[in-house]
Amino acid sequence: MEKINLYQKFSLFSEHWSPKIIGELNDQQIKLGKFQGEFVWHKHDNEDEAFFVMKGSFNMELRDKTIVLNEGDMVVIPKGVEHRPVAENEAWVMMFEPATTLNTGNVINEKTKTELEKI
């Protein structure tokens, strides 16, 4: 059991849309990701996801609205809801998800990460 400095962990990587695992609890993973540009429209049939903005801002696009998330904001996306994160500039985001969650959900493409790095 050691403390984790989130900003130090963010300094360890630069790639976008490639989440890193920083901790686990109760079958959940705590992940850090850097968002920039558009992600893919997708959904998770069996998992909810929580996104917490540490630095910057991004839009969480839903089919019927867009949620603007700034530093200190968070949103929970319920399972089955189609969504797409979009960041005009780089955003640092902490995510809470079940360990079974695939970053691209029901879509498999070049942004899909099947093995996540632990940092």
Write the layout of secondary structure elements.
Elements: H1 6-10, E1 20-25, E2 28-38, E3 49-55, E4 57-62, E5 66-70, E6 74-77, E7 83-98, E8 117-118
Parallel strand pairs: 1-8
Antiparallel strand pairs: 1-2, 2-7, 3-6, 3-7, 4-5, 4-7
Structure notes:
The protein has 119 residues and is mostly beta strands. It has one helix at residues 6-10, and strands spanning 20-25, 28-38, 49-55, 57-62, 66-70, 74-77, 83-98, 117-118. It is globular and about 40 Å long. A hairpin with a 2-residue loop joins β1 and β2. Strands 1, 2, 3, 4, 5, 6, 7 and 8 form an eight-stranded mixed β-sheet that branches. It has one domain (21-108): Jelly Rolls, CATH 2.60.120.
**CATH topology title:** Jelly Rolls
- Taken from the alpha-carbon principal axes, the silhouette is globular
In DSSP terms, counting alpha (H) and pi (I) runs of 4 or more, how many helices? 1
Named CATH architecture: Sandwich
Radius of gyration: 13 Å
**CATH level-1 class:** Mainly Beta
Total tally of structural domains: 1
Give, in order, the helices and strands: HEEEEEEEE
Q: What structural class should be given to the helix and strand makeup?
A: mainly beta
Q: What helical percentage do the residues reach?
A: under 10%
Tally of strands: 8
CATH superfamily name?
Answer: Jelly Rolls
CA distance, first residue to last residue: 15 Å
Beta-sheet strand percentage?
over 45%
Largest sheet: number of strands, sense, barrel closure:
8 strands, mixed
Kindly report the average pLDDT value.
92
